[in-house]
Specification:
The complex is a heterodimer of chains A (about 120) and B (about 110). Chain A is an all-beta fold. Chain A contains no helices and eleven strands. Helices cover about 0% and strands about 55% of the residues of chain A. With about 110 residues, chain B is mostly beta strands. The chains are: A mainly beta (about 120), B mainly beta (about 110).
Chain lengths: ~120, ~110
Amino acid sequence: GENVEQHPSTLSVQEGDSAVIKCTYSDSASNYFPWYKQELGKRPQLIIDIRSNVGEKKDQRIAVTLNKTAKHFSLHITETQPEDSAVYFCAASSMNYGGSQGNLIFGKGTKLSVKP
Amino acid sequence: EAGVAQSPRYKIIEKRQSVAFWCNPISGHATLYWYQQILGQGPKLLIQFQNNGVVDDSQLPKDRFSAERLKGVDSTLKIQPAKLEDSAVYLCASSPSSGGENQYFGPGTRLLVL
């Protein structure tokens, strides 16, 4: 089955700097890669996702890149702000419309701290 | 649009007791998931429903966990009897599609087993 590794486990940056979180996956059939942000005591929230037919996707200060050959994908946050402080989870899934697949396998999370 | 609702938000029980969690998904979402999130880890899927049918329960410890989704809307997850290692946050998520994308999570139920 799928296995998702996430690094680093903790990341501390100064406000305004960039942050990069990396994930690798094992199942070459995986074709959907979402990123979730979870603030302390709150629910995970989808912040961006990418499908395997795309190499990069941007949404304001957040971007995700995907390298299918190397089986890794990364989250990039630019101009970080204190409110970006949270735990970020990557996940992988092999979407199979009309079928029974589609379960997300999550990484262990990265605790991002943005210092003012 | 109302989000995924869960209750209770917190529950403390002793080992070997029983507990049940309730989830109301976003209206119109056919797919419902239950996840277990142990402190410091990512969510782990327990069971996936498509309408009122089980799609995947391969990670559900069936000797003590059970779940149902009657009428294809609300769902309940039960643990009987609970063990210390069941202490975790139980998250419910729903999605309009069956492919795993666009999952919206509820606030979770934090369970402590003493």
